[in-house]
């Protein structure tokens, strides 16, 4: 199991090599952007993009936010986007484009910690996949935690949701298949919830709802709220957010998270 093809990207970087890679997602050829350290890989970050089509697409600058010189970062485009075959199903078969990429990277780097980061639309993309993968943790950042909440708050997206998923009442089964909370257990990998209090694209009630459900389940999680920030934090706040995410990954890797969690209960 490996990537089928690698195309070197014209990105100048002292510590990383950028490739657009192609791999199999079921019977389709799908693509993603791979940022590989020139030195030894000590951490892997999977960035799950938000948006659809060209809105929120994977960019080199976004991947570079999560890296140091020993961190590999990969961002799947999802099927139907940026040269990938197939059709984006919005939390349907496109979930396989996440799981297959992680399985490939885990086989190449079997002893390296893998952290998933789901931003905006990618939040639910990750929640629906992280439990059954060889990952150390999941970070949901400004992320959708429930597709029904998305339908309720984003009136401007209802037409798209009706086309791609259906109506919540008429197509209840399709919405239930996208219910991530029901799949999370007490033993699921730990979750960091990051959200801005003034987020208008994905309201902070998505974060509150997720935290409430994780409490009921007994899952391990931590929250990082910036109440004065929107969907994307302002530069000074963004620096704090990235530091919090990297500290979280370090705590998970050093196995101090559960001790901190139990002390704070």
From TrEMBL:
InterPro entries: AB_hydrolase_fold, Peptidase_S9_cat. Residues 94-252 form the Peptidase S9 prolyl oligopeptidase catalytic domain. Coiled coil: none annotated. It holds the Pfam family Peptidase_S9. This is Prolyl oligopeptidase family serine peptidase. It comes from Staphylococcus edaphicus.
């Amino acid at each position: 199991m490996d990537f089928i093809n690698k195309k070197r990207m014209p990105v100048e970087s002292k510590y990383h090599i950028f490739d657009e890679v192609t791999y199999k997602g079921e019977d389709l050829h799908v693509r993603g952007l791979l940022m590989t350290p020139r030195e030894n890989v000590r951490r892997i970050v999977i960035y799950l993009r938000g948006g659809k089509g060209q809105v929120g697409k994977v960019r080199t600058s976004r991947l570079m936010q999560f890296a140091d010189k020993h961190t590999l970062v990969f961002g799947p485009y999802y099927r139907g986007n940026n040269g990938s075959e197939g059709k984006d199903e919005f939390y349907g078969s496109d979930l396989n484009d996440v799981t297959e990429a992680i399985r490939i990277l885990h086989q190449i780097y079997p002893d390296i910690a893998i952290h998933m980061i789901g931003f905006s639309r990618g939040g639910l993309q990750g929640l629906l996949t992280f439990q059954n993968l060889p990952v150390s943790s999941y970070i949901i950042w400004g992320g959708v935690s429930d597709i029904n909440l998305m339908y309720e708050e984003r009136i401007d997206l209802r037409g798209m949701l009706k086309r791609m998923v259906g109506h919540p009442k008429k197509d209840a089964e399709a919405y239930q298949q996208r219910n991530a909370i029901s799949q999370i257990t007490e033993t699921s990998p730990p979750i960091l919830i990051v959200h801005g209090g003034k987020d208008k694209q994905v309201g902070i009630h998505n974060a509150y709802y997720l935290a409430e459900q994780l409490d009921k389940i007994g899952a391990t999680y931590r929250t990082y709220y910036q109440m004065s920030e929107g969907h994307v934090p302002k530069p000074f706040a963004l620096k704090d957010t990235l530091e919090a995410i990297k500290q979280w990954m370090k705590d998970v890797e050093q196995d101090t998270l559960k001790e901190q969690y139990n002390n704070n209960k």
